[in-house]
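Continuing from yesterday's entry. The apo prediction looked reasonable, so today I'm repeating it with zinc ion included to see how the binding region is handled. Same sequence as before; SMILES copied from the compound registry.
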Amino acid sequence: MKSKTSIRYTGWMSSSIIALAMLVVCVLVVSPVRAVEQGKPNADVRIGSLQEYFETGLKFHGHKCPAMPLGIRAGMAAMRTLGVERSKDKELFVISETGKGHAAGCFLDGIMTATGCTYGKSNIDKRHWSKMAFTLVDQQTGKAVRVALKSDFFENALKSPFVQERKAGVPPQDIKPEITDPMVNRILSLDESAFLEIGDVHSVPVEKGKSVFTAKRCERCGELTFANKLRVADDGAVVCIPCSGYKE
Ligand SMILES: [Zn+2]
Ligand SMILES: [Zn+2]
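Holo prediction written out below.
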């Protein structure tokens, strides 16, 4: 009798536990789905993870510095604003206002890392205006957003010990981690509103160039050259740019 009661009791316990477990499973499974439907974590999943971009960016860029992660964060903010994922091919286009030979040019490597707009895919243009800003264009919809570093924030960053070391001629990879790490860690965790100026989404005309697949050998140097850059020399020979005397 005693054991029967205890079996019955155990049975009741088990079904309660199963019911409770099912409830927990439902809550765990259903609530992220609901959250995804509301668009919050979903946006982050589509644009990728900051940590992954940072690790990729470090390998690609070659040293740890503040400007590269600033570019990653700015790129991710632009992607989130347009609701787009990283460019696998040429779905996105970056018009960068950075130049060369100025501090924080590394910003663009961060933008490239996050957005997938690269020199190799030719979905990036550099305006050489020496400004810490860029426009991200969704080539499918023509929607675009300009993202810039806030001037106050950037002015302060230029006074940082990291930039002082750079000014004194220390290569970025030789600057002590005690100087670089806190600055980089801060950038990785800052609120976007503390350093980014995110413009309104606007429309731009989209030009889609076709890739050239035809190539011929230059009649002077013999090197295979894509047809869009073959020129006819004075003597009628079809030649590459360096052999032609033309600039482009
Ligand atoms: Zn750098
Ligand atoms: Zn040639």
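Comparison notes:
- Residues 1-10, 23-43 have pLDDT under 50 and may be disordered.
- The pocket of zinc ion (ligand 1) is lined by residues 61, 63, 65, 67-68, 106, 172 (CB under 6 Å).
Will overlay with the apo model tomorrow.
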